[in-house]
Write a structure and sequence with these properties.
The protein is built from twelve helices and no strands. By secondary structure, the chain is mostly helical. It has one domain (3-221). α1 (3-13) crosses α6, α2 packs across α4 and α4 crosses α8. 40% of the residues are buried.
């Protein structure tokens, strides 16, 4: 799940309090690849951490929430069905099946954010305003002992990410194509996909994704305010 999907599920569907450092913790795993591909969050450290200050506890809770919600989302029947149908509707055109799965996965997550933003045009600003209420230096200092890794450069990244407010552009398919290219460039996979394939995946994903269906399935077992699990794995796409 992407930034806005996490935010809406937590604060609109599950009615969790929109505490800024919790929201920041939830957002950090999606933002982290922009910081570094080598310095990864160590989830064992997050699970074992016991921060003494309120900011640290909220950051940890948000990180754990992100991982738990992603795990539930990726295992959902609705998401699996959308992936299967999406592959049947888009011509692979020689694209490796594994790559098509990867791109379809990304397209579905981005389109969920797109639907949410189209229905609630102020959603991106609500999300950014929540993060902006944090002290970026305190976030950087607080996340390092939690994640067990250097967060050098995070303060500057947060300033840029929140100032740009790029998620406002998610209503436009062209912006999502650009995001998909950016995510692909973070991988080691050769031969980038063309705009035609990405546009087709997004167009069909727009017809498939229904936020109400996924919220009903995810909320069935209740909110995930920051639950730690021995089965929790590193969130991924």
């Amino acid at each position: 799940m992407n930034y806005l999907g996490h935010y809406v599920f937590n604060h609109d569907v599950c009615r969790l309090a929109a505490a800024p450092y919790f929201a920041m913790g939830v957002a950090l795993p999606d933002l982290w690849p922009r910081l570094s591909r080598r310095r990864r969050i160590r989830w064992r450290c997050v699970r074992q951490a016991a921060p003494l200050d309120a900011r640290g506890r909220q950051l940890r809770s948000g990180l754990l929430n992100h991982a738990a919600v992603d795990r539930r989302f990726h295992a959902s029947a609705a998401f699996a069905a959308w992936q299967r149908v999406l592959k049947t509707r888009v011509s692979a055109d020689g694209t490796h099946p594994a790559l098509l799965d990867f791109l379809g996965h990304i397209a579905l997550e981005l389109v969920l954010d797109q639907h949410l933003l189209r229905r609630n045009p102020d959603l991106a600003d609500r999300f950014y305003d929540s993060l902006q209420a944090c002290d970026y230096a305190a976030v950087t200092a607080g996340v390092e002992p939690l994640a067990g890794v250097s967060a050098h450069g995070l303060e500057r990244l947060l300033e840029s990410f929140i100032a740009r407010r790029f998620l406002r552009q998610y209503t436009q398919r062209e912006a999502l194509v650009a995001v998909m290219h950016h995510i692909f460039n973070l991988t080691r996979i050769p031969d980038p996909p063309g705009d035609a394939l990405l546009g087709a995946l997004l167009r069909e994903a727009e017809r498939l994704v229904d936020p109400a269906i996924i919220w009903a399935e995810l909320a069935r077992d209740g909110p995930l305010a920051g639950r730690s699990s021995s089965r929790m794995t590193e969130p991924g796409r």
